[in-house]
């Protein structure tokens, strides 16, 4: 096996390891988020991260309808309808109608939803700062290669 093939094999092994580590991290992420919410006296909290991300999407774009959320999050309208109904039932969002269109329903955050949105936003800012510090160990050229790799990987995964 030549050096390039060996390097490709090592990259593949590291990629699989990364996927496993990330999968494990995703399992604990909601628990971490919930523990921070409890410390901040937020009594109610969605049970999964997709619901938190729907709250985030609504908070960034309100008022927004199911179609807008589905497009922004790259999820099906059926999924958004189900999640939206659950968030409405749990009191995280309110459903409204625009004066010029009584057929279409739009979502806005309730006070409880705004608390989740603000907490999520703060945690993302902290995570971004941590990620930027992590990237400081790489040169500009290495960062460009990493960027291209991640971009190409995303395109490859989406096309499957």
Topology:
Layout: H1 3-39, H2 49-61, H3 66-73, H4 77-89, E1 93-98, E2 101-109, H5 111-135, H6 140-158
Antiparallel strand pairs: 1-2
Written description of the protein model:
The two termini are 29 Å apart. Helices cover 72% and strands 9% of the residues. The longest helix is centred in the N-terminal third of the chain and has 37 residues, at 3-39. Helix 2 packs across helix 4 and helix 3 packs across helix 4. By secondary structure, the chain is mainly alpha-helical. 16% of the residues are buried.
Concise summary:
The protein is mostly helical and 160 residues long. The chain has a two-stranded antiparallel sheet with strand order 1-2.
Main attributes of the structure:
160 residues, single chain, elongated, two-stranded antiparallel sheet, mainly alpha
Structural class: mainly alpha
The proportion of strand residues reads 5-15%
Which stretches of 5+ consecutive residues score pLDDT under 50? none
Number of strands: 2
Mean of residue pLDDT values: 91
Report the end-to-end length measured between terminal Cα atoms: 29 Å
Can you give the helix content as a percent range? over 70%
- Summed up, the helix count is 6
Order of helices and strands: HHHHEEHH
Rg (CA only)? 20 Å
Question: What quaternary form is this?
Answer: single chain
Strand order of the largest sheet: 1-2
Task: Describe the global form.
Answer: elongated
Major sheet size, sense and barrel closure: 2 strands, antiparallel
